[in-house]
């Protein structure tokens, strides 16, 4: 039997990110018992807010160089009550996403079996979306500044930068994603009524790229109207593409409508595979519940599914997703999705489902 080995850099970082990453590595250990031809070699890095308090930066200056040889990066969460959010975000997560040009941020959202959406009459199958977030520019270009600090005439600017290269490549990725899904449906989200330069360019580039994908049905929405459509008519949507900021906001809404941010995964992808891609749950560090043993590990486990798919391990990815669905379907749920189970209960249940081949054969939902 030939063994496929992968080097994975784990960066648990802050708050519940640490507990979630630990639980995920445990589950991936069980996965390797079941799929003995896969070996995931984790190396853990202690970067994050604690590292910042000791060293004055969220990661070492040569952090990207250290990460570059890995096959993938598994990330927990960033954010700490005593460190400004822009320092934690820019110093670690964005440093990696932008440094490795992970320009496609893929955010699936689905109502899992056994989990209730806050929307009336919205069960599994009624909300099954993929949000593609442009992940390298736009509102997160980092360009801007402040002047006359503390004076009445103080000015603060954040400049959104949209490039033809950046928009075209994310648009192609989004059309490709839509094409790969059964409904072949894409909604392009902008705010081109108010933002009359970069967003109008988005609309134009969407129309150009659409010509390359005649089998994809697509439409356009303004981001404000999109929030209403997601809430009132979830079945009308499938794949969506939006700017860095718009998609960040829409995907929090998507996670909540699917039951909880505790079940929402994400993948920061370099589609050209020049650099390692990074996988993380959408949720942040959740300091209010850190250390209480009640955080929902499903987002992190589903994130591992996305990582396995990216590594080409489709069979293992499917097996893990089925084990997660078997667990939610059985009602083993943390409090954020209406249950009384703890992180450890959900973790053990997913491991049992993974290792029980009878469960694997049963279809769920
Ligand atoms: N695991 C995701 C995470 O830690 N996110 C922290 C955060 O503040 N993200 C904001 C953003 O990516 O725009």
Question: What would you say this structure looks like, in words?
Answer:
With 365 residues, the chain is an alpha/beta fold. The chain has two domains: 1-103 and 271-365, 3-Layer(aba) Sandwich (Isopropylmalate Dehydrogenase), CATH 3.40.718.10; 128-142 and 156-257, Rossmann fold, CATH 3.40.50. Helices cover 40% and strands 22% of the residues. It is built from twelve helices and twelve strands. It has helices at residues 16-34, 49-55, 63-67, 85-99, 164-180, 198-210, 223-232, 244-257, 298-310, 314-329, 343-355, 357-361, and strands spanning 4-13, 38-44, 72-77, 104-110, 128-134, 138-147, 155-161, 185-190, 217-222, 239-242, 265-269, 277-281. The strands form two sheets. A ten-stranded mixed beta sheet has the order 2-1-3-12-11-4-5-10-8-9, with helices on both faces. Strands 6-7 form a two-stranded antiparallel sheet. Helix 1 (16-34) packs parallel to helix 11 (343-355) and helix 9 packs antiparallel against helix 10. The longest helix has 19 residues, at 16-34. It starts with a strand and ends with a helix. The mean pLDDT is 96. The protein binds glycylglycylglycine. Glycylglycylglycine (GGG) binds at residues 77-79, 89, 93, 248, 280-282, 284.
């Amino acid at each position: 039997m030939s063994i496929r080995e992968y080097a994975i850099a784990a960066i648990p970082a802050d708050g519940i990110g640490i507990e979630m990453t630990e639980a995920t590595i445990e589950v991936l250990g069980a996965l390797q018992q079941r799929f003995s031809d896969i070996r995931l070699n984790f190396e853990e890095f202690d970067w994050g807010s604690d590292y910042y308090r000791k060293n004055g930066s969220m990661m070492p200056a040569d952090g990207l160089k250290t990460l570059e040889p890995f096959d993938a990066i598994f990330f927990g969460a960033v954010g700490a009550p005593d460190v400004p959010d822009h320092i934690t975000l820019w110093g670690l997560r964005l440093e990696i996403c932008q440094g490795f040009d992970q320009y496609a941020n893929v955010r699936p959202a689905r109502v899992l079996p056994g989990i209730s959406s806050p929307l009336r009459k919205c069960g599994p199958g009624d909300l099954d979306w993929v949000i593609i977030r442009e992940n390298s520019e736009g509102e997160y270009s980092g360009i801007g500044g402040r002047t006359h600090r503390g004076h009445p005439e103080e000015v603060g600017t954040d400049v959104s930068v949209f490039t033809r290269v950046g928009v075209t490549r994310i648009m192609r990725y989004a059309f490709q994603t839509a094409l790969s899904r059964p409904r072949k449906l894409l909604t392009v989200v902008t705010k081109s009524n108010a933002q009359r330069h970069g967003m109008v360019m988005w609309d134009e580039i969407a129309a150009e790229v659409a010509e390359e994908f005649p089998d994809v049905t697509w439409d356009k929405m303004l981001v404000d109207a999109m929030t209403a459509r997601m809430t009132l008519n979830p079945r009308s949507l499938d794949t969506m593409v939006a700017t860095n900021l718009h998609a960040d906001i829409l995907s929090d809404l998507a996670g909540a409508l699917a039951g909880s941010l505790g079940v929402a995964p994400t993948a920061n992808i370099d589609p050209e595979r020049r650099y390692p891609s990074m996988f993380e749950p959408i949720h942040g560090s959740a300091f209010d519940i850190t250390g209480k043993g009640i955080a929902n590990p499903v987002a992190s486990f589903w994130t591992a599914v996305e990582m396995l798919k990216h590594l080409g391990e489709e069979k293992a990815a499917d097996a893990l997703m089925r084990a997660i669905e078997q667990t939610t379907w059985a009602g083993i749920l943390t409090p954020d999705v209406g249950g009384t189970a703890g992180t450890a209960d959900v973790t053990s249940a997913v491991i049992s489902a993974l290792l029980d081949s009878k469960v694997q054969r049963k279809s769920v939902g």
